[in-house]
């Protein structure tokens, strides 16, 4: 499912945070959003998810204007992995993943078991954790369970806000590999906020850099990840080399400018 | 790759240690155990009423024969049903509040709803809006008061994090309790009658009282059960709920309305029974259950508490007009259980 953002403006107060953002994401693309803290990456994600209302501009999900869709219709098209999931006492993995069926079945439908939910547990490799209490899982397991919830939601679009935050390097790779697999097997359109530029270059096929309230650069990793990007957008002096194994750019960061 | 390392439940038999943190799923054995506990508590409750056991057993034939059976049928059984219904309503109300407000200390008595309902009943009686024996009048007054109490809490915490609602609920509850005290100070002669509402008691309820409240509470629990999925989606955060297609404000409004309705129903029968609505939802969640588990846990808890209250009343020789109010037992037992739960978490 495609995502289209046209001339989007947004401000929390008098100061605009986003001014004139244009972005067209084709069905099945894997896009990484990068930029400094507070540049509006997460805000853009929330706007696309319909959790915030733009001051002006249009957002289309699969051709349908976001404003004309109900909350439930949006949730049938698009799943969001927010930065954190606050703890819920005694909530089990199965109970959480079942909630993914809410947009399709409504509150009464959740009272019965669902095959889609079981498949989601299998696909994300957390079936063996199904009866565990969520708060007893490790960070990596939790992220996989949350991806299972997104899979159970059975949407065309998956938005992720820093899915690798607070994970060790092995689990960072595992989560991103799982996202890549899910995207390939389920034809998902993936838009993720990432802080690690090397991860963005390695896993996304397209990188969008936000800077100065709009899209500063948009293209293939090797075209976007440059010393100019590091200097202009992130304020860091650095070099960019090519990872010979993967053929993707890697950043060697030297010093803040 | 992750998928290659995937394990299915069959690969992981019940090794010791792997299931230590698992919540057992409700099996038929568990249901049977709860049903037996329920029956034992109900039977014990009737048995300690002071009437001969033969009179209780005699009711099982479906007819009421003789004076002793009549007393059991017209006082003992309604008292048991009052305890069960009130307990179930408070358990579900607390469960709904804790899920919606995302605070394990949310409870009818701490959200302004229960004190408001009691103020509504006492205010209505003082102003002579309804006769003291009117079940529907008490329910309506409790509803109005409960909505007022919930509304005050709501206004105090408007546009703030729902988790803070409990703090404002405590403030609102204190305010309403203060108003109730003023009301009583204004007419101290009514204090004796008011005591049962203030402390909470299931004593002296007869079939007429139950006629209205039983339908009300059963309906409220059914609605709460139908809202189970909504409560689950609402529990983690507003963002989570919205991303799954539920408008969080709307969901919260529906859930709070159900909680107020149930609390008012309970208060119109038994007054301000404390701690049942606070503690039993914790028990229900620990058992991996939902709305219905909270209802059963609340019913068993209050019937059990009232059994103890009756026993304590016999020990004190029953000379006091009120006996030992059930609310005293729930307050004592509830605080002890809560301290235990708090330490083990």
From TrEMBL, chain A:
SUPFAM superfamilies: P-loop containing nucleoside triphosphate hydrolases
Main subcellular localisation: membrane
A GO term, aspect molecular function: ATP hydrolysis activity
Localization terms from the record: Cell membrane
Membrane topology (UniProt): Peripheral membrane protein
Record key words, sorted: ATP-binding, Cell membrane, Ion transport, Iron, Iron transport, Membrane, Nucleotide-binding, Transport
Matching InterPro entries: AAA+_ATPase, ABC_transporter-like_ATP-bd, ABC_transporter-like_CS, P-loop_NTPase, Siderophore_ABC-ATPase
One GO cellular component term noted in the UniProt record for this chain: plasma membrane
SMART domains, sorted: AAA
GO biological process: iron ion transport
Location of the ABC transporter domain: 3-237
Pfam families in the record: ABC_tran
UniProt-listed PROSITE patterns: ABC_TRANSPORTER_1, ABC_TRANSPORTER_2
Protein name: ABC transporter ATP-binding protein
Species per Swiss-Prot/TrEMBL record: Nonomuraea turkmeniaca
Lineage: Bacteria, Bacillati, Actinomycetota, Actinomycetes, Streptosporangiales
From TrEMBL, chain B:
SUPFAM superfamilies: ABC transporter involved in vitamin B12 uptake, BtuC
Keyword set, alphabetical order: Cell membrane, Membrane, Transmembrane, Transmembrane helix, Transport
Topological type in the membrane: Multi-pass membrane protein
InterPro entries linked to this entry: ABC_BtuC-like, ABC_transptr_permease_BtuC
Cellular compartment(s): Cell membrane
Any single biological process term in GO: siderophore-iron import into cell
Molecular-function GO terms, alphabetical: transmembrane transporter activity
Entry's transmembrane regions: 31-60, 80-101, 113-132, 139-159, 165-186, 207-234, 254-279, 291-316, 322-341
Major location (coarse): membrane
GO cellular component: a single term: plasma membrane
Coiled coil start-end: none
Annotated segments matching region Disordered: 1-24
Family: Belongs to the binding-protein-dependent transport system permease family. FecCD subfamily.
Protein name as catalogued: Iron ABC transporter permease
